[in-house]
């Protein structure tokens, strides 16, 4: 384990000794960390106001928000893990993008990214970001 | 039931049973009496779709998770299937490549395992027939011998597919699939949702949307909720089929009996009936699949019109099969395989590497104290397969050198490929297998045991088209 990571982990662990367990039920805090993480990682996109918060509400309603998951999220945030080090964070950001119109707009960074509802292959308007519906065959250049 | 004796008793309504019955009815006289026993119920695709959308359905009472139907002792190995009218046509993903000719003669060509008692040429006309019945979409020019166009045009390539096809020709082709490339026969064109299990637009071939008249034919009586568990044997014949319906024990006599359930249940029924063939229930398995994410430097992989956009055969057939398993490449169009780096979100190709496996005696099915529940023992992958994985990792970078590859990420092997194979293997005689080339039991000569259970070896190609062609072949040659 890298030294820096170890120190941060130890810090979280130590905190656990003094913080009442009830605190870990404080969902808004967890959701805040999740929202901050999305905004940090996707800093280069124009995220519609409130869209990340709405997504995070739906996301945690879907995956559950118990003590364990709250603690894991807090740990992820305090460790400063980026998505390439955290599957949890990668999933969160991936599902945010898939739940938005980012791919429907062909990943155009100039366009505002709107939340369309939590990703579902059965409900999302265009659930496959690679789809020929977005990139019709005539737009795929001949080799 | 209308009668206590039928000319033909068919167990199951999946691919194997339906294709067999269709051919039988085309050849049988108008006074024949056919009974079809289905364990599950009719559960329409539209109702399944409601559940996927989070709605409710009166048909939910017919949900029958696969885990509740077998005793699976190895929890890491999954075996998804559907118990209902149409069987696993309700949950398959619609991949229909043919086998390669050498898949049928592994022993004589490469000295591995056993040859099948049938070959590619035996099945060739029935492949065409099955492809027509499923309205398969596919390319002209395939690695296996095939003339002319498929019933429907091929699906659209991505840029990655185009480059690979240009490099490898007919060794890398649009995958033949029963996911319609345009509307046909009551099915819509695929919208590339990549959730084929329950197709959101009903583009995938199922028994329900097939337009088959097998179950509406006036000669046929279809009974739902009939759990077949055993047979009564009399020397070289089956005299009765035993089942339970609504908690009551029922038996029915049949001139000819057809087991068309999945390999676990076919084996369970045979073992409950006292079948002493040394291979009954032995050598179950399926292919090994693992995903490789190909991160691309400056190229997106967008534009595919299908779930499996293409098949690559560069690691499939050849002298290497003397030493290690063939590998079929599936180019997936997976929505969840996106990247998060800025400007590279779609710069990834997701290839599933599917390896053949061998029927090992250490993988088998037995009966259990519950006569309806087979007990599944799956322990090992063959060394042959694992060597194939190792070879693939050596060769893949070179194969992909025509692409701007940034990084390859190998994921862990998947828990299943959605196939159940073996357990009633086909062979020349009873000393090496359970059924003959027409899938008639070596000992019980009025009993057909259909499906992928009859496969002698487990080539890397998806089994459904081949097992469907085998049903057409068996019925055509036997009646």
How much of the residues of chain A is beta strand, in percent?
Answer: under 5%
Number of separate strands of chain B: 16
The biggest sheet of chain A amounts to: 2 strands, parallel
Mean pLDDT of chain B: 97
Short structural summary:
The complex is a heterodimer of chains A (143) and B (479). By secondary structure, chain A is mostly helical.
Architecture overview:
The complex is a heterodimer of chains A (143) and B (479). With 143 residues, chain A is mainly alpha-helical. In chain A, helix 2 packs parallel to helix 4 and helix 2 (27-41) packs across helix 5. Helix content of chain A is 48%, strand content 3%. Chain A has helices at residues 3-18, 27-41, 51-63, 67-79, 87-98, and strands spanning 46-47, 112-113. Chain A has one domain. Chain B has 479 residues and is of the alpha/beta class. Chain B folds into two domains: 5-154 and 177-283 and 419-478, FAD/NAD(P)-binding domain; 288-413, no CATH class. Helix content of chain B is 19%, strand content 20%. Chain B contains eight helices and 16 strands. The mean pLDDT of chain B is 97. At the A-B interface, helix 5 of A face helix 5 of B.
